[in-house]
Amino acid sequence: MKLTGLRAAGPVVRLSRYGAWAIPRYEAVSEVLRDHQRFSSAPNPGLEPDRPDLPKGGVLGSDPPDHTCMRGVLTEQLSSRALRTLRAELDQRADRLVAETIARGSFDAVTDLARRFPLDVVADLVGLPADGRENLLALADAGFDSFGPSNARTLAALPDVPKIFGYVASSMSRENIAPGSWGDAVYHAVDRGVITEQEAVHLLLAYLVAGMDTTINAISSAIWLLTQHPSAWAALRADPSLARAVLTETLRLESPVSFFCRGATRDATVSGIPIARGDRVIVLFGSANRDERKYPDPDRFDIERNAADHLAFGSGIHSCAGQALARIEGNAILAALARHAQTIQLAGQPVRHLNNTVRGLEHLPVTAQPAR
C-alpha cells in the first residue's frame, strides 16, 4: 500500500505483515512523538527491537531520566551560542568545497558534495582521527537498515558490522579522540560520573550516525529538486539567503528519515483508535510531511511554503538534537552553490540509495557553469 493509501485508510492503520500499527497522518504522528510516557523509544526505535543485532539503550533508545541525562552531555556544544561561532567557519569550508567542485564543470552532487561536507564536519567536531572515516558511512547505513524488518537488505549489512564496530571502538577511544572536541566533552562527563564509559560510545555513535546520513540526504535531495525547478534555482541565485527556505521545503518533501518506531507502554488511543500495551507503532515522518490535511498540494516543491513545522527532525523529547547543525551545514552548501554556479543541471539519471529507514540518493550526476 502506498503512503497516500495509508493516509486515506485512517490515522492509525494495522499492518498485519509486520504485526505493528502504522501512523501515517501529521496530527497522529505529532501526538505519538510528543508522548514518551505512552509511547516509549526504549530499547531502540527499530521495528523489531529485541533482535540481537540491534543496540539497546543510548540516546535514541531511552526515555527520561536516562535520555535527559545523556542528551544534556553536549548541551553546551549544541547551544545557539556555540553554533553561532561555528557557522562562520562552516560557511567558509562550504564555500571552498563548492568553488573547487563547480570549477570542474561536472560532478556527482552526492559523492563530491553532499557526502564529503557532513562527513568531515561531524567527524572533526567529534574529534575522530582522519584515517578510516569512510567506515562511518557504512556504519550509518547499516545502522539505519537495522531499524527496519529482517529483510535481505538488513541481513546483507550484518557481515560488515564487526569490522565497522572495530573501527568505532578504536577511533572513539579516549586516546584517539582529539582534545577540545565533542568526544572529549563526552569523556569529561564520564569522569564526572554523569554517564558510563559504554554510554559515552553509544552517545558518540548516535550523534555521528544521526548527524551524517540525514544531512547528506537533505543536501543531495535539495540539489536534485533545484535541478527540477528552474524558478526555485533562479530565486536562490538572486538571493542566497533563500537557502533556508529551500532546505526547509526539501526536508518536508524528501524527509531523510522515513520512520522510527515506538512501543506502547500501556493501553492507549491515538486519534480515537485503541492501541494495546506492548504493541509496536511505526511513526511515518515522510508520510506525515506529505499529509494533504496539513499541507495543501503536498507533493509540490514550493520554497515559499515555509513549512517550519515539518516533522523531518521529529518532535518532542526525541527531536533531533543536531538539527540546528544540520541546518547550518545544508544552508552553507546551498548558499555557496547559489554564489558559485550560474547554472546547475542533471547530467544523467539520479540513482536512489536504498535503505530500510532513510530516503536519499546514491548518485546525482550534474553539470554546472561557474558564475561570472
Describe this entry's structure for a reader.
- The chain is an alpha+beta fold and 372 residues long.
- It has one domain (3-370): Orthogonal Bundle (Cytochrome p450).
- The chain has 15 helices and twelve strands.
- The protein is globular.
- The termini are far apart.
- The strands form four sheets. A five-stranded mixed β-sheet has the order 1-2-8-5-3, sandwiched between helices. Strands 4-12-9 form a three-stranded antiparallel β-sheet.
- Percent of sequence in beta strands: 5-15%
**Per CATH, what is the topology?**
Cytochrome p450
CATH H-level homologous superfamily name:
Cytochrome P450
Task: Please name the CATH architecture.
Answer: Orthogonal Bundle
Structural class call reads: alpha+beta
> What percent of residues adopt helix (DSSP H or I)?
40-55%
Radius of gyration: 20 Å
Strand ordering within the main sheet: 1-2-8-5-3
What is the β-strand count?
Answer: 12
- Low-confidence runs (pLDDT<50, min 5 residues)? none
Write the element-wise H/E pattern from the N-terminal end onward: HEEHEHHEHHHHHHHHHEEEEHHEEEE
Name a few traits of the molecule:
372 residues; alpha+beta
Give me the secondary-structure topology.
Blueprint: H1 3-9, E1 13-15, E2 20-23, H2 26-33, E3 39-40, H3 66-72, H4 80-102, E4 106-108, H5 109-114, H6 116-126, H7 134-146, H8 152-157, H9 161-171, H10 182-191, H11 197-228, H12 230-238, H13 243-253, E5 259-264, E6 268-270, E7 273-275, E8 280-284, H14 285-288, H15 323-340, E9 341-346, E10 351-353, E11 360-363, E12 365-370
Helix pairs in contact: 4-15, 6-11, 7-9, 7-11, 10-11, 11-13, 11-15, 12-15, 13-15
